[in-house]
Design a protein that fits this description.
With 501 residues, this protein is mainly beta. The protein has 4 helices and 30 strands. Strands 10-9-12-17-14-15 form a 6-stranded mixed sheet, with no helix packed on it. A 6-stranded mixed sheet has the order 21-20-23-28-25-26. The chain is globular. The chain binds copper (II) ion.
């Protein structure tokens, strides 16, 4: 969603921040100097294996557009961190900013002390301070790291900043056959508030809505507007990037006819849902959120909710110079795309809008598949209190919002280790919510009335007035945060804590 068309001119000389974050297959041979791969050092008693420095830097996203944003190691996205599954790493995190920070290892099943969420009890990295952490990376696949600080009304904090970077955990077994491996991080910049705004959601399938949830949501909204409230704030952006560059400003993805290219795509947005298509090509999805699908599924285009990841193979069999970009014309015109260029092809990059295609999560698992019965089911109803907190929408789960001013709150849900739990998620609002469970992987068991099994994820979009069921095994004791990954929603109540008893 673009907020308004104003173009801001940034004056001043560009720094030496050019270069592509596209990485070659061997990360240690990645050429561009700005995409430093952090070399693991063998000695964990002395220097850390990796160092991540949080600081505010100028970042050039286009030739005339240099932003001041907080980043990891002075670059956006943060350096690709390649770990080996099961092999412990030590990481020094330096915080060169004036605010306490949290660095969250999204999608990993690691202890509370290092997970990077104050709500679970992870210590903050103090302003101008450091913290050394160690953990054993798992599970394998595409993960990422990002700040877990709340932003509230501050549009330069939290994930509105540049604190996002990809993590790839090498599996112990064969990763598959491909000729090139390319990491793409999708991210918007220059956020502004607006009053209200629509979010695309007609791409989800099935489109079944629950009338009871719709009645509930619509009557609450009507009541609020009847009382004279304005619509709560939403966020829009002026600039859109892939790997930190607006379309046409970074290095193209260079391919050769006949190659099999493995794309690892991360939606690093604070608030947005993204789509991606490459004209004339098909994506064969092999993993979602880093977890292999029961079998690969070919689709003409991709949808990724905030924080979702897709690993997909594209066979390069349609020579030309193409725009791999977002379906939303406005967002693509303002930068959300990257050029894919075949060897020996020349000319202006072409965009061709794909035919409509609906995104059906069930189809990425085993449609109609059955799963084990849970030991216990938790009901969760999501509701919006329009403009309920200083002009911002307030979000509740079963009528309760997570305290906006407090970091730690008592756990609402209690788990027993070894038990299987089902979350019955019911969305009584018209927004899509990319819900996220920390420190665990969940299985989608029912989406908008359709049963499925075998799709393992850590983020899932729950459509407006829709219901979804996800199951997880309580296999990682410690406080565990559940929240909507839309920054504006999580910051204003849409969180809940699980503990183990
Ligand atoms: Cu949400």
């Amino acid at each position: 969603m673009i907020s308004h068309p104003s173009r801001r001119a940034f004056l001043g000389a560009a720094g030496a921040l050019v270069g592509s974050a596209v990485l070659s297959r061997n990360p240690l041979l990645a050429a561009p100097c700005t995409t430093a791969i952090l070399d693991p050092a063998p000695d964990t008693d002395g220097p850390a294996d990796y160092t991540v420095t949080i600081a505010t830097n100028p970042i050039e996203i286009a030739s005339d557009r240099i932003l001041s944003i907080t980043t990891y190691n002075g670059q956006f996205p943060g350096p690709l961190l390649r770990f080996k599954e099961g092999q412990q790493v030590t990481i020094d995190i330096h915080n060169n900013t004036d605010t306490p920070e949290q660095l969250h290892w999204h999608g990993q099943t690691i202890p509370v002390d290092v997970d990077g969420a104050a709500e679970e009890g992870t210590p903050f990295i103090p302003p101008h301070g450091s913290r050394r952490i160690s953990f054993t990376p798992r599970p394998s696949g595409l993960r990422f790291y990002h700040t877990h600080a709340r932003a509230g009304a501050n549009l330069s904090a939290g994930q509105y900043s540049g604190q996002v970077g990809p993590v790839y955990i090498e599996p112990k077994d064969n990763p598959g056959s491909y000729d090139q491996e390319i990491f793409l991080t999708l991210k918007e910049f220059q956020p502004t508030f607006s009053r209200g705004g629509d979010m695309a959601m007609d791409f989800l399938s099935p489109a079944t809505v629950v009338q009871e949830l719709k009645d509930k949501g619509e009557s609450a909204m009507k009541e609020s507007l009847d009382h004279g409230n304005p619509h709560g704030f939403e966020v829009g952006y002026d600039s859109f990037t892939i790997n930190g560059k607006m379309l046409g400003h970074g290095e193209p993805v260079r391919v050769k006819q006949g190659q099999r290219v493995l794309f690892h795509i991360l939606n690093g947005s604070a608030t947005e849902i993204r789509s991606l298509a490459l004209p004339g090509h098909t994506f064969t999805i092999i993993a979602m959120d880093g977890n292999p699908l029961p079998k690969p599924v070919s689709v003409p285009l991709l949808w990724l909710g905030t924080a979702e990841r897709i690993s997909a193979i594209v066979e390069m069999n349609h020579p030309g110079v193409w725009i791999m970009g977002d379906l939303a014309d406005d967002d693509r015109h303002h930068g959300m795309g990257i050029v894919v260029e075949y060897a020996n092809s020349k000319g202006k990059a072409q965009w061709i809008a794909p035919k409509p295609f609906r995104w059906n999560y069930s189809s990425f698992g085993n449609p109609g598949g059955t799963t084990a019965q849970p030991d216990e089911t938790f009901e969760m109803v999501f509701e919006k209190v329009n403009a309920g907190f200083e002009g911002f929408n307030l979000w509740t789960i079963n009528g309760k919002f997570y305290p906006v001013e407090k970091m730690m709150a008592p756990a609402t849900y209690h788990l027993h280790e070894g038990k299987r739990y089902r979350l019955h998620l019911r969305n009584a609002s018209d927004d899509i919510h990319p819900i996220h469970l920390h420190r665990h992987t969940f299985e989608l068991t029912r989406y908008a009335g359709q049963a499925t099994s075998g799709l393992m994820k850590d983020v899932l979009m729950v459509g407006g007035y829709q219901e979804v069921e996800i199951d997880f095994l309580a296999n990682n004791p410690g406080n565990t945060l559940f929240h909507c990954h839309q920054q504006l929603h999580m910051d204003f109540g849409f969180m809940s804590l699980f503990d183990y008893i």
